[in-house]
Each structure stands twice: as C-alpha cells, then as structure tokens.
C-alpha cells in the first residue's frame, strides 16, 4: 500500500520505518526541513536502538522517502497522523497539529478524490477521531480510523514490528479492511472496535501502568520503614498470573513523554465529563513526591549536603534513550543544587541535553569518574554503564562509600559485602 506518515518524531519515524520494512511504500512528512535533510541521509534525529540501521536499509531499497510537502504524498491510500499532542497549560492535550494535518489531507483529497483512510496514531482525547470524521463528513471516500501505538522508548522498533496488540478503531467495514491489509504481515491480537474505545484503550493502558508503578513506589516507603525488601516483594507478587511480573519495579518515579502527559490528560477528560478519577490523582501525587522521599533517605547518610560531592548516575528518564522529558533526574538535580551539593553527573547519552538546564553540574565521561571522591552516589537511571561497575575500585575512590540505589538495580548483597552503606527503594 502507499502510505504517508505525517510527523517524523518518535512515533512517526518508527511507524514509517516499520511499515516500510513490512513491504509498504512509505513517505514520511515533516515541516522541519533540517530534519528531513538528515532523515534522507539516514540519520535519525532520536537515539533509538536499531532504528538508524533500519532507516538506512529502507531508504536504500526505496521503500521509504521523506518530504516537507504533503503534496508529494498525494497518491497515498493511507495517511498516518503522528504529530505531537503536547500538554496545554491546563493539562489537556493540545490538538492543533492534529487538526492542521487533517485540514491539509482534506485539501489534497478534495483536489483528487479517491478512497483514502486517515489513521490517527497520535494520542488524542476520546472523541477526537469522531470529531475529525465529522469535519470530513462532506468528503466522500475519506474515512477515519483510530490506531493508537504502544511503543516503549528504547524498544520502539521492536514494539512496532512485534506489537502486543493492534487496536483498530473504525466504524466502516471498508476502513477496517484497509487497516487489516496494512497490518497483514504482523502477527498480533487485533481489537477492532469504535474510534472512542480505541482512544480510551490507549489512555487507560498508560494510566494503569503508571498506577502499578506508583502503587509499588508508595509501598516501598512502607517497606523501608519495616525493613522488608521491595524486590523480593515484587517478585513474590508478580508470580501471581493475575498480577504478572511487569511494571512492579519501585524506583524514583516514572518519567517520559507518555505517563505524565497521558495521566493528566485523562484526569482533564474525566473532569470535563464530571467524573473524578481519584486513584489517578493519587498516582500523580505519589510520582511527584517519590524523588523527594528518595532524597530524604540520602539525608540519613549525608545530613548536610552543602559542599559535599554527590554523584548522580543516569539522567535519561529510562535506559536506552536520550529522552529527558519529565525525567526524575531533573527534580533530583534541582533539589541537590538547592541543598548546596557539588553534583557530578554521568549519563552515556543524555548529559548534553541536561547540561543546558543545569550548567553548574559537572558532567563526567564515566560513572567511575562521577563517583570519585563522592560522599554518596545516587543511581537514577539503570543504564548498564551505571550498573555494571568495579565495586572494589569504587569503594577505594569514594570519600564516603554510600550508595543510594534509586532503581534497585545495584547488587545489594555484593556491595554491602564490599563494605558500602547501601540503601535502595524499599530495601536496605
Ligand atoms: C510508555 C508505555 O510503556 C508505552 O506502551 C506507551 O506507548 C508510551 O509510554 P515509555 O514511556 O517509553 O513507554 O517507557 P516505559 O518503559 O513504559 O517506562 C516509563 C517510566 O516508568 C520510566 O521512567 C521507567 O523508569 C518507569 N518504570 C517502568 C518504573 O519506574 N517501574 C517499572 O516497573 C517500569
């Protein structure tokens, strides 16, 4: 099929590459000329394992092209809308890019009508797909499907090629057929439903995953007070098939482009409908206070941080990404600076972006270097470069051998045997 993908950000680029790999003829569209120039050279604007290699491959075999002009995609059968839906000031999703993409597609369609489907992949409030369909009601043969994505950063291409499920929100049988044809080669359970159901599945999934994390994070505070071990507790819980092992890892809180934004958007959507999602409100509160609680643990070992060297390991919101949006590291750096600490931070990829926000932090080239002479080291993102360390060497190099493990990813028993004072999240 001939496919246009509008927006070459995280979702759009991954979608374009995966569709091209699956045998479709794809054109990626973006207004930002500099981005298109790079993409045409096979350079990915985001760090995502495997994406750049795959991009080069589909560019070389001609399955994927890029343009700044939507007119170049005039003969496409399917238009994916993958533009950003940033958080507006009131927490609702700002849909201006979605609507302008739809208006541009409408123009193209009116100039040369044929059977076409607009697929909304951007995360949009429930009802948006129906509103778009209403806007296009005069356009014969142009239909709308909602097709949310569930990509995880760091695993985006893998998730696009082997999704857990494909959710198709479309009412007309013909539109559903086009969507089935589009994903013909992909083996995954299908949920074929209304547009509104598809839209809510996306928000509800992210809100539920965020809820699991905040539940475990809040419980970790009790675990710390009781002297129990959160890792063992999560393991014991996860073996119950009704619970499952995923997303039970206590830590310094969730970040990223989805959970923070989608949970607030869902709360706003509920409020607009006169519904209070009180559990979700607490989920957000727990997430906001988890870094604060974590830093209180540091105080037990370093009561006054003023002038003390503190190592912060990992800055991205999770490993294998350069994304720092809503990363817990940001509130932790801010609090440490306010306490007057001399902060030495390390991240294999994201340091340069953080540097722009925190110019007074010293950024090192390795985790070891950040920990040298430190009075405490804080693990914020569990990059392998921050986890697989020579503990005997580090023990010698620190001013005070204190390890605050914000991801429960350091080998607790081993480091304690090596002489460190160790404190994890709900484990000691
Ligand atoms: C998430 C969803 O997983 C994905 O389906 C959706 O499309 C977009 O949002 P992503 O934000 O890339 O993906 O990352 P994810 O792996 O879900 O992690 C989100 C945050 O939760 C990270 O900050 C991570 O560190 C944290 N997390 C995750 C925990 O604190 N504990 C866990 O057990 C799992």
Automatic annotation (TrEMBL):
Gene Ontology annotations of biological process type:
polysaccharide biosynthetic process; UDP-glucuronate biosynthetic process
Please name the catalytic residues of this protein: 258
Enzyme nomenclature, EC number = 1.1.1.22
Amino-acid positions noted as binding NAD(+) in the UniProt annotation, renumbered to this chain: 30, 35, 85, 123, 153, 261, 325
Q: In which pathway does it act?
A: Nucleotide-sugar biosynthesis; UDP-alpha-D-glucuronate biosynthesis; UDP-alpha-D-glucuronate from UDP-alpha-D-glucose: step 1/1
> Ranges for the UDP-glucose/GDP-mannose dehydrogenase C-terminal domain?
311-412
Show the InterPro entries listed in the entry.
Answer: 6-PGluconate_DH-like_C_sf, NAD(P)-bd_dom_sf, UDP-Glc/GDP-Man, UDP-Glc/GDP-Man_DH_C, UDP-Glc/GDP-Man_DH_C_sf, UDP-Glc/GDP-Man_DH_dimer, UDP-Glc/GDP-Man_DH_N, UDPglc_DH_bac
Q: Where does substrate bind?
A: 150-153, 202, 247-251, 255, 318
Membership in a protein family: Belongs to the UDP-glucose/GDP-mannose dehydrogenase family.
Q: What is this protein called?
A: UDP-glucose 6-dehydrogenase
């Amino acid at each position: 099929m001939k496919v246009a993908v509008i927006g070459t950000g995280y979702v759009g680029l991954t979608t374009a590459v995966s569709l091209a790999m699956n045998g479709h003829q794809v054109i990626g569209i973006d207004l930002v000329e500099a981005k298109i120039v790079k993409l045409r050279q096979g350079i990915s604007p985001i760090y995502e394992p495997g994406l750049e290699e795959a991009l080069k491959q589909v560019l070389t075999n001609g399955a994927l092209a890029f343009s700044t002009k939507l007119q170049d995609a005039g003969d496409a059968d399917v238009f994916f809308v993958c533009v950003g839906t940033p958080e507006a000031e009131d927490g609702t999703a700002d849909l201006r890019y979605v609507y302008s993409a739809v208006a541009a597609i409408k123009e193209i369609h009116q100039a040369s009508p044929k059977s076409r489907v607009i697929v909304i992949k951007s995360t949009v409030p429930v009802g948006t797909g129906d509103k778009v369909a209403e806007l296009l009601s005069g356009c014969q043969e142009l239909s709308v499907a909602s097709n949310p994505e569930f990509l995880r950063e760091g695993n985006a291409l893998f998730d696009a090629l082997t999704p857990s499920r494909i959710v198709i929100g479309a009412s007309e049988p013909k539109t559903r057929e086009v969507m089935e044809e589009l994903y013909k080669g992909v083996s995954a359970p299908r949920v074929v439903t209304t547009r509104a159901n598809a839209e809510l599945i996306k928000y509800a999934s992210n809100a539920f995953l965020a809820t699991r994390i905040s539940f475990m994070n809040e419980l970790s505070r009790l675990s710390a007070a009781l002297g129990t071990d959160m890792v063992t507790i999560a393991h014991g819980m996860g073996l119950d098939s009704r619970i499952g092992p995923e997303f039970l890892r206590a830590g310094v809180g969730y970040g990223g482009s989805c959970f923070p934004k989608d949970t607030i958007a869902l709360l706003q959507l509920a409020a607009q409908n006169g519904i209070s999602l009180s559990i979700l409100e607490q989920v957000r509160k727990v997430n906001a206070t988890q870094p604060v609680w974590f830093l209180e643990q540091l105080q037990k070992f370093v009561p006054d941080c003023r002038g003390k060297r503190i190592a912060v390991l990992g800055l991205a919101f999770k490993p294998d990404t350069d994304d720092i949006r809503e990363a817990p590291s940001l509130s932790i750096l801010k609090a440490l600076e306010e306490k007057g600490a001399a902060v030495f931070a390390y991240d294999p990829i994201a340091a340069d972006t953080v540097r722009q926000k925190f110019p007074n932090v010293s950024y090192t080239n390795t985790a070891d270097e950040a920990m040298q002479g430190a009075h405490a080291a804080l693990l914020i993102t569990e990059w392998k470069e921050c986890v697989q360390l020579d503990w005997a060497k580090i023990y010698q190099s620190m001013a005070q051998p204190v390890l605050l493990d914000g991801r429960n990813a350091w080998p607790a028993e081993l480091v304690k045997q090596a002489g460190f004072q160790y404190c994890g999240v709900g484990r000691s």
